Amino acid sequence: MQAVVKTPRIEINIKGDIPDRLLSILEEEFGNDVQISDEDNDTVDIFQTNWYRDIKSKIIPGDTLRIYRQNHNMTQAELGRKLGNIPRQHISNMERGIRTISLKNARKLAAIFGVSPEKFI
């Protein structure tokens, strides 16, 4: 929530959870000059932030594999069967970065999850 008060010499800009008592005081003091909005106009492209770049640099293909597998409510054993009876331990090793994901398996994973193979390379 955002409350904005603008008068010729006063500008108050409050963001976050604003207590009802404070809102009533502002409305009492400034009347119709108080504007209350639930939308945040200061949007940021997350892909351009240092936080995202830092996190992205630490993610390995195995992390992506684990995220997709879990989002599809699939066990490692189930995924192994769908990949052509690959043992569960191999899936585990791919997720932990011990075993690389081959291009062949990346293509199979892409077909299973409906994404690009580059996600897993």
List the helices and strands and how they pair.
Elements lengths: L1 E5 L4 E5 L4 H11 L3 E4 L12 H9 L2 H11 L4 H7 L5 H8 L7 H11 L8
Antiparallel strand pairs: 1-2, 1-3
**What percentage of the residues does DSSP assign to strands (E)?**
5-15%
Q: Low-confidence spans: pLDDT under 50, at least 5 residues?
A: none
Q: CATH superfamily name of the largest domain? A: lambda repressor-like DNA-binding domains
Mean pLDDT: 88
Structural class: mainly alpha
Give the fraction of residues assigned to helices: 40-55%
Instruction: State the distance separating the first and last CA atoms.
Output: 42 Å
CATH names the topology of the largest domain as: 434 Repressor (Amino-terminal Domain)
Identify the strand order in the major beta sheet: 2-1-3
Radius of gyration: 25 Å
Number of strands: 3
The number of helices is 6
Features:
single chain, 121 residues, mainly alpha, 434 Repressor (Amino-terminal Domain), 2 domains, three-stranded antiparallel beta sheet
How does this model look, in words?
This protein is mostly helical and 121 residues long. It folds into 2 domains: 36 residues, no CATH class; 71 residues, 434 Repressor (Amino-terminal Domain), CATH 1.10.260.40. 47% of the residues lie in helices and 12% in strands. It contains 6 helices and 3 strands; from the N terminus they run E-E-H-E-H-H-H-H-H. The protein has a 3-stranded antiparallel sheet, covered by helices on one side. Strand 1 and strand 2 form a beta hairpin. Helix 4 crosses helix 5. The protein is rod-shaped and about 70 Å long. The relative contact order is 0.11. The mean pLDDT is 88.
